[in-house]
Amino acid sequence: MALASQSSALSISFRGAQPLHSKPKFLYSVPSISISKSNPPLKGLVSLPYRHHKPLRIFASVSVSNPEVRTGPEDLVASILSKVTQTDGGVLLTTEEHEEVAAVAEELQKYCVNEPVKCPLIFGEWDVVYCSIPTSPGGGYRSALGRLFFKTKEMIQAIEGPDTVLNKVSIRAFGFLDGEVSLKGTLKALDDKWIQVVFEPPELRIGPILEFRYGGESEVKLQITYIDDKIRLGKGSRGSLFVFQRRS
Q1: What integer is the mean pLDDT of 131-150?
Q2: What pLDDT is stored for residue 150 in this prediction?
Q3: Which of 29, 31, 167, 244 could form a disulfide with 126 if both were Cys (CB 3.0 to 4.6 A apart)?
Q4: CA nearest 246: which of 230, 234, 233?
Q5: 157, 126 in Cβ contact below 8 A?
Q6: pTM of the entire predicted model
Q7: Which domains does the chain have, with CATH numbers?
Q8: What are residue 229's phi and psi, to 5 degrees?
Q9: Average pLDDT, the chain
Q10: Closest Cα to residue 30, out of 11, 16, 50, 44?
């Protein structure tokens, strides 16, 4: 729902009015006045006749400043999704477009529920539709070099009660081999907004045969800045911005 607020300035000047030396009885009727607000100001002329005196003319000037539009959370959610959809998780966006996403996310923070870590909406499956730092959700596979050999098909995060997090990045290796990188982690609430997830070593599967674990444990900290039944916003400890969209 969009709410708009606007301010109007009304100035009135009197011309041709005669000074009153006595107290005559005024007999006049006020006509209906319709003033159309526009920019630049519109001037309206109204004559009020009365006995024994010349008409009193009122010049009314109405000016309206540009309305300041305040957008509600539903419109902001639709806006941010329209900016990040079909952008390869944000990789295809320009610097200016990343700034636009960040601005909408900042507005949405104002509508975040209290103690989002305790909100039951956190559970479920989410598509990672945007990240301001490409390598944050997919590691080296999402780097500029990695994207030359591994095409990202989808990035999914599933949060299961009471404290399990499953991250999965589906890829196509070398243009013809389907693969998947998955991580399983344990979630811990640090306060009412911040969570910490400690992940086990990642598991890589390429094709129907090749499957192995590599590396060691990893840890991430994420602040939940907004959540509803459609999207969830997160901000990493290093400043990365995430947009998660609930899977239908």
Answers
A1: 92
A2: 93
A3: 244
A4: 230
A5: yes
A6: 0.71
A7: 2-68 (no CATH), 73-246 (2.40.128.280)
A8: -80, 0
A9: 80
A10: 50
Question: What letter represents residue 106's amino acid?
Answer: E
Helix/strand/coil (H/E/C) assignment for every residue in the chain: CEEEECCEEEEEEEECCCCCCCCCCCCCCCCCCCCCCCCCCEEEEEEECCCCCCCEEEEEEEEECCCEEEECHHHHHHHHHHHHCCCHHHCCCCHHHHHHHHHHHHHHHCCCCCCHHHCHHHCEEEEEEEECCCHHHHHHHHCCCHHHHEEEEEEEEEEECCCEEEEEEEEEECCCEEEEEEEEEEEEECCCCEEEEEECCCEEEECCCEEEECCCCEEEEEEEEEECCCEEEEEECCCCEEEEEECC
Q: Which two tokens stand for residue 138?
A: 């997919």
What average pLDDT does this structure show over 155-171?
97
Task: Identify the residue whose tokens are 């009015």.
Answer: 17
